[in-house]
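Reference record
================
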Amino acid sequence: PTLLGMGLSGFPFVGADIGGFAGSPSPELFTRWLQAAQFSPFMRAHTEQQSADQEPWSYGVRHEGINRRVIEARYKWLPQIYNEMEAAHRNGIPAMRPLFLDYPDDAETWSRDDSYLFGSDLLIAPVLVEAATTREVYLPGSRWYAFDTTNAFDGRRSHSLPVDLTTVPIFVREGAILFRQPVVQHTGEMPGNDLIVQVYPGQHGEASFYEDDGETMAFASGAYARRRFLQRRGADDFELQIDAQEGRWRPMSRYWRVECLGLQNVREIRDGRRRLMQVSLDAFDQCETCWAQVVDRVLIRLPDRAEAVRLKVR
């Protein structure tokens, strides 16, 4: 609640001392705290000298493995986190925010501080009770999807979810477009990596994606890249429009990996007038421009380019 309140008070760049600054957390408390902080604008473990060792590897092999996966997930989310923090810098709306900021007409959100939004498209409901086996989550709005799945949940109602120590409930708003990357060990490995664009079911959706060099103030003089992504779904077709880049900064040569969740039995995909080649999943990462069908989504691979792109799926 403190971090959410600070965001509302004009301090969007916030975070906690994971595990607590004073005292020594239990292994479970440290892991759950780390999970809860996965989307906090800054994420760090910090403690006084008198406490017990409080590194992610300090709590035994099982917790070390879970903690490693949480930190790796944070690295995968960095494009989305950076994008939302640039928006907060520009418009003053905190990236990490309470549900009622986006849903002020829903009285159920007014007093809820056990979950939070990150931007408008992500709802994070960390597990806060020791040894919990279920987690009650209230979802506002219309429809949400469990992250990286097509499992849909109706909004304006509570849902009871089974959980274990590895569970971090993350929900994605209907029609959302998210930006991620493969796991890296440090931010210096990010340039040249694929940009993963996840498009969730919904009749329409829109997102803006921002990048710059991540190191200098050159963005203030136009050295940045911003693009608008729009999706539209019909009964038998899907279209993703990617506007031409705004700004003069260009990322290192890379590929887009577009994941269109909920599309099945696809017959063809076109990039403008060009028909893309369908390949097996095993061959997908080696092709230049292609697509593959998997159980609950279509994958599309193509080189990042500055001009506008229009993908049509039938």
In short: The chain has two domains: 2-173, 177-313. Residues 177-313 form a domain with the Immunoglobulin-like fold (CATH 2.60.40.1180). The two ends are 45 Å apart (CA to CA).
